[in-house]
Prior knowledge:
Blueprint: H1 3-15, E1 25-31, H2 36-51, E2 54-60, H3 67-78, E3 85-88, H4 90-98, H5 106-112, H6 114-117, H7 120-126, E4 127-128, E5 131-132, E6 134-136, E7 138-139, E8 144-148, H8 149-155, H9 163-175, E9 179-182, H10 187-201, H11 203-211, H12 215-218, H13 221-234, H14 246-254, E10 258-263, H15 267-273, E11 282-286, E12 294-296, E13 300-303, H16 311-322, H17 324-334, E14 337-338, H18 350-364, E15 368-370, H19 380-394, H20 400-414
Helix pairs in contact: 2-15, 2-17, 10-11, 10-13, 10-19, 13-20, 19-20
Amino acid sequence: MTVKSTCAVAALSVALGGATSVFAQDVEVLHWWTSGGEAAAVSVLKEDLEGKGTGWVDMAVAGGGGDAAMTTLRARVTAGDPPTAAQMLGMNVREWADEGYLGNLNEIAAAEGWDEVVPPAVQAFGKYEGNWVAAPVNMHRPHWVWGSAKIFDELGLEMPTNWDEFFAAADAIEAAGYTAVAQGGQAWQEATIWEAIVLSIDPNLYQSALIEADPEALGSDQMVEAFEIYRKVLGYADDGYAGRDWNLTTALVINGEAGMQIMGDWAKGEVVAAGLTPGEEILCSVVPGTQGSFLFNTDFFAMFDVGEGKQAAQQNMAQSVMSVSFQETFNLTKGSIPARTDVPQGNFDACAQKSMADLAEATAADQLYGSLAHGHGQPAAIQGAYLDVVTAFANSDQSAADAAAALVASVAAAQ
Length: 415
Protein backbone atom coordinates (compact mmCIF):
# COMPACT_ATOMS: atom_id res chain seq x y z
CA MET A 1 0.00 0.00 0.00
CA THR A 2 1.37 3.45 -0.86
CA VAL A 3 1.84 6.20 1.71
CA LYS A 4 -0.92 8.14 -0.02
CA SER A 5 -3.44 5.31 0.23
CA THR A 6 -2.36 4.50 3.78
CA CYS A 7 -2.95 8.12 4.77
CA ALA A 8 -6.38 8.03 3.14
CA VAL A 9 -7.35 4.94 5.09
CA ALA A 10 -6.01 6.48 8.31
CA ALA A 11 -7.89 9.70 7.69
CA LEU A 12 -11.10 7.74 7.21
CA SER A 13 -10.44 5.89 10.46
CA VAL A 14 -10.07 9.20 12.31
CA ALA A 15 -13.28 10.49 10.74
CA LEU A 16 -15.07 7.38 11.99
CA GLY A 17 -13.76 7.98 15.50
CA GLY A 18 -10.55 5.95 15.47
CA ALA A 19 -7.21 7.25 16.78
CA THR A 20 -4.99 5.99 13.95
CA SER A 21 -2.36 8.46 12.77
CA VAL A 22 -2.80 9.98 9.32
CA PHE A 23 0.82 9.00 8.59
CA ALA A 24 2.26 5.62 7.74
CA GLN A 25 4.70 5.95 10.64
CA ASP A 26 5.08 8.27 13.60
CA VAL A 27 7.90 9.41 15.79
CA GLU A 28 7.13 10.34 19.36
CA VAL A 29 9.63 13.05 20.23
CA LEU A 30 10.48 14.18 23.76
CA HIS A 31 11.99 17.68 23.90
CA TRP A 32 12.01 20.89 25.94
CA TRP A 33 11.73 23.47 23.16
CA THR A 34 8.63 25.32 24.35
CA SER A 35 9.44 29.06 24.17
CA GLY A 36 8.23 31.10 21.20
CA GLY A 37 11.42 30.90 19.16
CA GLU A 38 12.03 27.28 20.09
CA ALA A 39 8.49 26.20 19.23
CA ALA A 40 8.89 27.82 15.80
CA ALA A 41 12.09 25.84 15.29
CA VAL A 42 10.36 22.57 16.24
CA SER A 43 7.63 23.23 13.68
CA VAL A 44 10.29 23.32 10.96
CA LEU A 45 11.35 19.76 11.78
CA LYS A 46 7.77 18.58 12.16
CA GLU A 47 6.82 19.91 8.73
CA ASP A 48 9.93 18.41 7.14
CA LEU A 49 9.10 14.98 8.54
CA GLU A 50 5.48 15.20 7.52
CA GLY A 51 6.71 15.82 3.98
CA LYS A 52 8.40 12.43 4.18
CA GLY A 53 5.22 10.72 5.38
CA THR A 54 6.35 10.54 9.01
CA GLY A 55 4.06 11.93 11.69
CA TRP A 56 5.27 13.89 14.70
CA VAL A 57 3.80 13.02 18.10
CA ASP A 58 4.85 15.88 20.33
CA MET A 59 6.02 15.26 23.89
CA ALA A 60 7.16 18.68 25.03
CA VAL A 61 8.30 19.12 28.63
CA ALA A 62 8.76 22.76 29.63
CA GLY A 63 11.99 23.87 31.25
CA GLY A 64 14.78 25.68 29.43
CA GLY A 65 17.62 23.64 30.90
CA GLY A 66 16.06 20.26 30.07
CA ASP A 67 16.15 18.88 33.62
CA ALA A 68 12.40 18.24 33.73
CA ALA A 69 12.53 16.56 30.32
CA MET A 70 15.31 14.22 31.45
CA THR A 71 13.31 13.31 34.58
CA THR A 72 10.31 12.49 32.40
CA LEU A 73 12.48 10.49 30.03
CA ARG A 74 13.93 8.43 32.85
CA ALA A 75 10.43 7.62 34.10
CA ARG A 76 9.33 6.56 30.62
CA VAL A 77 12.32 4.32 30.06
CA THR A 78 12.03 2.80 33.54
CA ALA A 79 8.40 1.98 32.76
CA GLY A 80 9.50 0.18 29.59
CA ASP A 81 7.94 2.78 27.28
CA PRO A 82 10.71 4.97 25.81
CA PRO A 83 9.85 7.56 23.17
CA THR A 84 11.02 7.06 19.61
CA ALA A 85 13.46 9.94 19.92
CA ALA A 86 14.54 12.40 22.57
CA GLN A 87 16.36 15.70 22.59
CA MET A 88 19.56 15.36 24.57
CA LEU A 89 22.72 17.23 25.39
CA GLY A 90 26.13 15.66 24.95
CA MET A 91 26.70 14.00 28.30
CA ASN A 92 23.15 12.66 28.32
CA VAL A 93 23.82 10.93 25.01
CA ARG A 94 26.89 9.23 26.46
CA GLU A 95 25.05 8.11 29.58
CA TRP A 96 22.05 6.62 27.73
CA ALA A 97 24.33 4.92 25.21
CA ASP A 98 26.41 3.47 28.04
CA GLU A 99 23.23 1.97 29.48
CA GLY A 100 22.51 0.30 26.13
CA TYR A 101 19.24 2.06 25.30
CA LEU A 102 20.14 3.86 22.07
CA GLY A 103 19.81 2.60 18.51
CA ASN A 104 22.50 2.58 15.84
CA LEU A 105 22.55 5.27 13.15
CA ASN A 106 25.67 4.15 11.30
CA GLU A 107 23.83 3.26 8.11
CA ILE A 108 22.26 6.67 7.56
CA ALA A 109 25.41 8.41 8.85
CA ALA A 110 27.57 6.62 6.28
CA ALA A 111 25.10 7.24 3.46
CA GLU A 112 24.91 10.94 4.31
CA GLY A 113 28.64 11.43 5.06
CA TRP A 114 28.28 12.72 8.61
CA ASP A 115 31.94 12.01 9.46
CA GLU A 116 33.11 14.49 6.82
CA VAL A 117 30.92 17.44 7.82
CA VAL A 118 30.45 17.28 11.61
CA PRO A 119 33.24 18.81 13.78
CA PRO A 120 35.22 16.19 15.72
CA ALA A 121 34.30 17.84 19.04
CA VAL A 122 30.62 17.25 18.24
CA GLN A 123 31.23 13.72 16.96
CA ALA A 124 32.76 12.93 20.34
CA PHE A 125 29.27 13.22 21.84
CA GLY A 126 27.16 11.91 18.94
CA LYS A 127 29.15 8.69 18.72
CA TYR A 128 29.54 5.94 21.30
CA GLU A 129 32.33 3.38 20.92
CA GLY A 130 32.72 4.49 17.30
CA ASN A 131 29.02 4.15 16.42
CA TRP A 132 26.65 7.03 15.66
CA VAL A 133 23.81 6.96 18.20
CA ALA A 134 22.46 10.53 17.94
CA ALA A 135 22.00 13.12 15.20
CA PRO A 136 23.37 16.60 16.01
CA VAL A 137 20.95 19.42 15.29
CA ASN A 138 23.02 22.52 15.95
CA MET A 139 25.86 24.19 17.78
CA HIS A 140 25.00 26.79 20.41
CA ARG A 141 27.46 29.27 21.90
CA PRO A 142 26.45 30.08 25.48
CA HIS A 143 28.83 33.01 26.17
CA TRP A 144 27.19 35.93 24.37
CA VAL A 145 26.33 39.39 25.61
CA TRP A 146 23.13 40.75 24.06
CA GLY A 147 22.57 44.49 24.10
CA SER A 148 19.64 46.79 23.45
CA ALA A 149 20.64 49.00 20.51
CA LYS A 150 18.01 51.50 21.66
CA ILE A 151 19.68 51.93 25.04
CA PHE A 152 23.25 51.74 23.75
CA ASP A 153 22.55 54.36 21.07
CA GLU A 154 20.73 56.60 23.53
CA LEU A 155 23.69 56.54 25.92
CA GLY A 156 26.43 56.56 23.28
CA LEU A 157 27.81 53.18 24.40
CA GLU A 158 29.71 50.46 22.57
CA MET A 159 29.43 46.74 23.31
CA PRO A 160 32.13 45.88 25.88
CA THR A 161 35.30 43.99 25.00
CA ASN A 162 36.72 43.69 28.54
CA TRP A 163 35.30 43.66 32.06
CA ASP A 164 36.20 47.27 32.79
CA GLU A 165 34.16 48.33 29.76
CA PHE A 166 31.34 45.99 30.77
CA PHE A 167 31.00 47.46 34.23
CA ALA A 168 31.35 51.03 32.95
CA ALA A 169 28.50 50.38 30.50
CA ALA A 170 26.43 48.75 33.24
CA ASP A 171 26.91 51.78 35.51
CA ALA A 172 25.82 54.14 32.73
CA ILE A 173 22.75 52.04 31.91
CA GLU A 174 21.74 51.81 35.54
CA ALA A 175 22.23 55.54 36.06
CA ALA A 176 19.86 56.17 33.13
CA GLY A 177 17.10 54.26 34.91
CA TYR A 178 17.28 50.95 33.09
CA THR A 179 18.11 47.47 34.37
CA ALA A 180 21.80 47.14 33.57
CA VAL A 181 22.14 43.35 33.29
CA ALA A 182 19.00 41.25 32.84
CA GLN A 183 19.40 37.97 34.72
CA GLY A 184 17.26 34.94 35.45
CA GLY A 185 17.36 33.20 38.80
CA GLN A 186 17.67 29.55 37.80
CA ALA A 187 20.68 27.33 38.44
CA TRP A 188 21.53 26.75 34.79
CA GLN A 189 21.24 30.47 33.98
CA GLU A 190 23.51 31.37 36.89
CA ALA A 191 26.02 28.74 35.75
CA THR A 192 25.89 30.10 32.19
CA ILE A 193 27.19 33.47 33.40
CA TRP A 194 29.68 31.98 35.84
CA GLU A 195 31.30 29.55 33.38
CA ALA A 196 31.73 32.36 30.84
CA ILE A 197 33.54 34.37 33.49
CA VAL A 198 35.82 31.39 34.23
CA LEU A 199 36.63 31.16 30.52
CA SER A 200 37.36 34.90 30.43
CA ILE A 201 39.93 34.55 33.20
CA ASP A 202 41.90 31.89 31.31
CA PRO A 203 40.85 29.12 28.89
CA ASN A 204 43.35 26.86 30.65
CA LEU A 205 41.46 27.45 33.90
CA TYR A 206 38.24 26.43 32.19
CA GLN A 207 39.83 23.24 30.87
CA SER A 208 41.48 22.21 34.13
CA ALA A 209 38.71 23.27 36.52
CA LEU A 210 35.51 22.56 34.61
CA ILE A 211 36.44 19.82 32.13
CA GLU A 212 39.10 17.98 34.14
CA ALA A 213 37.77 18.86 37.63
CA ASP A 214 41.30 19.44 38.90
CA PRO A 215 41.02 20.36 42.61
CA GLU A 216 44.01 22.71 42.50
CA ALA A 217 42.38 24.72 39.71
CA LEU A 218 38.98 24.64 41.42
CA GLY A 219 40.39 26.26 44.54
CA SER A 220 42.88 28.56 42.84
CA ASP A 221 43.26 32.33 43.10
CA GLN A 222 41.98 32.52 39.52
CA MET A 223 38.76 30.78 40.56
CA VAL A 224 38.38 33.23 43.45
CA GLU A 225 38.76 36.04 40.91
CA ALA A 226 36.04 34.48 38.75
CA PHE A 227 33.63 34.42 41.70
CA GLU A 228 34.52 38.03 42.53
CA ILE A 229 33.65 39.16 39.01
CA TYR A 230 30.43 37.15 39.18
CA ARG A 231 29.49 38.84 42.46
CA LYS A 232 29.88 42.20 40.75
CA VAL A 233 27.73 41.10 37.79
CA LEU A 234 25.03 39.89 40.19
CA GLY A 235 24.90 43.35 41.70
CA TYR A 236 23.27 44.71 38.53
CA ALA A 237 20.26 42.36 38.60
CA ASP A 238 16.79 43.82 39.09
CA ASP A 239 14.62 42.90 42.06
CA GLY A 240 12.43 40.53 40.02
CA TYR A 241 15.11 38.24 38.68
CA ALA A 242 14.65 35.34 41.13
CA GLY A 243 13.16 32.32 39.38
CA ARG A 244 12.62 34.17 36.10
CA ASP A 245 12.78 32.09 32.91
CA TRP A 246 15.49 32.91 30.40
CA ASN A 247 13.11 33.95 27.61
CA LEU A 248 11.31 36.40 29.89
CA THR A 249 14.72 37.79 30.76
CA THR A 250 15.58 38.15 27.08
CA ALA A 251 12.29 39.99 26.60
CA LEU A 252 13.56 42.74 28.91
CA VAL A 253 16.35 43.47 26.43
CA ILE A 254 14.07 43.08 23.42
CA ASN A 255 11.59 45.55 24.92
CA GLY A 256 14.27 48.10 25.80
CA GLU A 257 13.85 47.70 29.56
CA ALA A 258 17.32 46.24 30.16
CA GLY A 259 20.65 47.04 28.60
CA MET A 260 22.42 43.67 28.51
CA GLN A 261 21.95 39.94 29.04
CA ILE A 262 24.58 37.21 29.19
CA MET A 263 22.91 34.24 27.53
CA GLY A 264 23.43 31.69 24.78
CA ASP A 265 22.51 32.30 21.17
CA TRP A 266 19.16 30.57 21.62
CA ALA A 267 18.14 34.07 22.73
CA LYS A 268 18.24 35.01 19.05
CA GLY A 269 15.21 32.81 18.46
CA GLU A 270 13.25 35.13 20.73
CA VAL A 271 14.68 38.15 18.92
CA VAL A 272 13.60 36.79 15.54
CA ALA A 273 10.19 35.79 16.89
CA ALA A 274 9.76 39.41 18.03
CA GLY A 275 10.40 40.63 14.49
CA LEU A 276 13.85 42.08 15.25
CA THR A 277 17.24 41.40 13.67
CA PRO A 278 20.20 40.16 15.72
CA GLY A 279 23.14 42.45 15.16
CA GLU A 280 20.86 45.42 14.47
CA GLU A 281 18.12 46.17 17.03
CA ILE A 282 19.75 43.64 19.38
CA LEU A 283 23.53 43.90 19.51
CA CYS A 284 25.87 40.98 20.11
CA SER A 285 29.39 40.40 21.35
CA VAL A 286 31.05 37.56 23.20
CA VAL A 287 31.52 37.82 26.95
CA PRO A 288 34.51 40.08 27.68
CA GLY A 289 37.78 38.18 27.65
CA THR A 290 36.45 35.11 25.79
CA GLN A 291 37.47 36.30 22.33
CA GLY A 292 39.32 33.50 20.56
CA SER A 293 37.69 30.74 22.60
CA PHE A 294 34.44 28.94 21.89
CA LEU A 295 32.18 27.21 24.38
CA PHE A 296 29.59 25.01 22.73
CA ASN A 297 26.61 22.88 23.47
CA THR A 298 24.84 20.79 20.87
CA ASP A 299 21.30 19.52 20.84
CA PHE A 300 21.10 15.94 19.63
CA PHE A 301 18.18 13.74 18.77
CA ALA A 302 18.99 10.31 20.12
CA MET A 303 16.99 7.38 18.76
CA PHE A 304 15.91 4.79 21.28
CA ASP A 305 16.04 1.10 20.46
CA VAL A 306 12.26 0.61 20.17
CA GLY A 307 12.19 -2.23 17.65
CA GLU A 308 12.34 -2.65 13.89
CA GLY A 309 8.86 -1.25 13.36
CA LYS A 310 10.05 2.28 14.14
CA GLN A 311 13.43 2.15 12.42
CA ALA A 312 12.25 3.57 9.10
CA ALA A 313 10.68 6.56 10.87
CA GLN A 314 13.84 7.04 12.93
CA GLN A 315 15.98 6.95 9.80
CA ASN A 316 13.68 9.55 8.21
CA MET A 317 14.06 11.76 11.25
CA ALA A 318 17.85 11.41 11.34
CA GLN A 319 18.04 12.17 7.63
CA SER A 320 15.84 15.25 8.06
CA VAL A 321 17.84 16.52 11.04
CA MET A 322 21.13 16.23 9.14
CA SER A 323 20.08 17.55 5.74
CA VAL A 324 21.76 20.79 4.63
CA SER A 325 18.42 22.45 3.93
CA PHE A 326 16.99 21.58 7.32
CA GLN A 327 20.14 22.56 9.22
CA GLU A 328 19.98 25.97 7.55
CA THR A 329 16.24 26.53 8.05
CA PHE A 330 16.17 25.20 11.60
CA ASN A 331 19.17 27.12 12.86
CA LEU A 332 18.00 30.35 11.25
CA THR A 333 14.90 29.99 13.41
CA LYS A 334 16.59 28.62 16.54
CA GLY A 335 19.42 31.13 16.74
CA SER A 336 22.19 28.54 16.72
CA ILE A 337 24.60 27.61 13.93
CA PRO A 338 24.50 24.32 12.02
CA ALA A 339 26.20 21.19 13.29
CA ARG A 340 27.35 20.68 9.71
CA THR A 341 30.26 22.81 8.53
CA ASP A 342 29.17 22.85 4.87
CA VAL A 343 25.95 24.86 5.27
CA PRO A 344 26.04 28.17 3.33
CA GLN A 345 26.36 31.23 5.59
CA GLY A 346 24.69 33.82 3.37
CA ASN A 347 21.23 33.75 4.96
CA PHE A 348 22.48 33.89 8.54
CA ASP A 349 22.55 37.10 10.57
CA ALA A 350 25.73 38.95 11.46
CA CYS A 351 25.95 37.36 14.91
CA ALA A 352 25.67 33.83 13.50
CA GLN A 353 28.24 34.55 10.80
CA LYS A 354 30.62 35.77 13.49
CA SER A 355 29.96 32.58 15.43
CA MET A 356 30.71 30.43 12.37
CA ALA A 357 33.97 32.27 11.73
CA ASP A 358 34.95 32.09 15.41
CA LEU A 359 34.18 28.36 15.47
CA ALA A 360 36.59 27.71 12.60
CA GLU A 361 39.30 29.78 14.28
CA ALA A 362 38.79 28.20 17.71
CA THR A 363 38.83 24.70 16.24
CA ALA A 364 42.10 25.40 14.43
CA ALA A 365 43.60 26.89 17.61
CA ASP A 366 42.31 24.06 19.84
CA GLN A 367 40.21 26.53 21.84
CA LEU A 368 36.88 24.69 21.56
CA TYR A 369 35.37 23.63 24.90
CA GLY A 370 32.20 21.82 25.89
CA SER A 371 29.88 23.89 28.10
CA LEU A 372 29.64 22.60 31.66
CA ALA A 373 26.42 24.52 32.30
CA HIS A 374 24.80 22.96 29.24
CA GLY A 375 25.66 19.31 29.56
CA HIS A 376 28.98 19.02 27.74
CA GLY A 377 31.51 19.24 30.55
CA GLN A 378 30.77 16.67 33.26
CA PRO A 379 28.35 13.81 33.89
CA ALA A 380 25.07 14.94 35.42
CA ALA A 381 25.93 14.13 39.04
CA ILE A 382 29.21 16.04 38.96
CA GLN A 383 27.70 18.88 36.92
CA GLY A 384 25.10 19.20 39.66
CA ALA A 385 27.84 19.65 42.24
CA TYR A 386 29.18 22.64 40.33
CA LEU A 387 25.73 24.16 39.86
CA ASP A 388 24.85 23.72 43.54
CA VAL A 389 27.87 25.79 44.57
CA VAL A 390 27.27 28.47 41.95
CA THR A 391 23.59 28.92 42.77
CA ALA A 392 24.31 28.95 46.51
CA PHE A 393 26.85 31.73 45.90
CA ALA A 394 24.42 33.66 43.69
CA ASN A 395 21.71 33.56 46.33
CA SER A 396 23.76 34.46 49.40
CA ASP A 397 26.47 36.82 50.57
CA GLN A 398 29.10 34.06 50.55
CA SER A 399 32.64 35.28 49.88
CA ALA A 400 34.44 34.39 46.67
CA ALA A 401 37.13 32.53 48.62
CA ASP A 402 34.55 30.45 50.46
CA ALA A 403 32.78 29.65 47.17
CA ALA A 404 36.00 28.37 45.63
CA ALA A 405 36.65 26.20 48.68
CA ALA A 406 33.08 24.90 48.53
CA LEU A 407 33.59 24.05 44.88
CA VAL A 408 36.59 21.87 45.69
CA ALA A 409 34.64 20.00 48.38
CA SER A 410 31.42 19.64 46.40
CA VAL A 411 33.06 18.27 43.27
CA ALA A 412 35.21 15.86 45.30
CA ALA A 413 32.13 14.55 47.08
CA ALA A 414 30.32 13.96 43.78
CA GLN A 415 33.15 12.03 42.14
